[in-house]
Every structure is written in structure tokens, then in C-alpha cells.
């Protein structure tokens, strides 16, 4: 059992540090960019996770009272489903009204053309028919 623990403990620590590093916002990493920390954790899988946990992440709250990630969570606009989003529903309504006005204009144009065709039929022939031969 102890022999298995010798292999499982560093593996578990590496997995924990890797996931912790990936979930940490970029502005909370110390000394190196987040990509460099990921490589350190994966390449030096025994020492890398310990270094990450000791020196890689900002662990104390700044003087402002909250961590940067808390600030981001508080000021991030929350995603709303389209059914519940009033702006989206309003845009659909506006688009529907615009489509209806285009449809009404199109129907009015069709009626006008039909009336012209009826008038021309009454005067004799359709506009596309060739003139009857004289004589």
C-alpha cells in the first residue's frame, strides 16, 4: 500500500495543481505567465506542483478587500437565456415589425401591378403581347 502511495501522491498533487493553475485567472498568477506555470507543473511533475502551490498563485486578499477574481465575478455580465433576455425579445419584436412593413409594401406593390395589368387588359392586350397584325 505504501508503494502505491509513493506513486499516487505525486500524481494526485500534479493533477490538483494543474487544474488549479488552469482555473486561476491570469492576473492572480505570480512571477510567471500562466502558460509557463502549466509547463512547469507538467514537466517537473514532482517539484512543479509544490512550487505552484507555494509561489505561483496569489493567495492573500489585496488591500481592496476582495481578490481580483471576486471583482471579475461581481462585474461580469451574467449570461441570460434568450427566452428571458428582454433586449433579445425586443430585437425580435423590432425585426418582426420591420419584416411586416416590408411585406405590406411588397403586397401594395403587387396590387398596384395587378391593377395596371387589369387596366391594360381592358384597353386591349397584355403589355408583353405583340401587336396584332394589321391588314
UniProtKB/TrEMBL annotation:
Keyword terms of this UniProt record: Cell membrane, Membrane, Transmembrane, Transmembrane helix
The keyword Transmembrane helix appears for this protein: yes
Residue span(s) of domain Cardiolipin synthase N-terminal: 12-56
Protein's UniProt name: Cardiolipin synthase N-terminal domain-containing protein
Residues annotated as transmembrane: 35-55
Start and end residues of each stretch annotated as Disordered: 113-135
Principal localisation: membrane
Biased composition (Basic and acidic residues): 113-122
Subcellular location: Cell membrane
InterPro entries cross-referenced by the UniProt entry: CLS_N
Membrane topology field: Multi-pass membrane protein
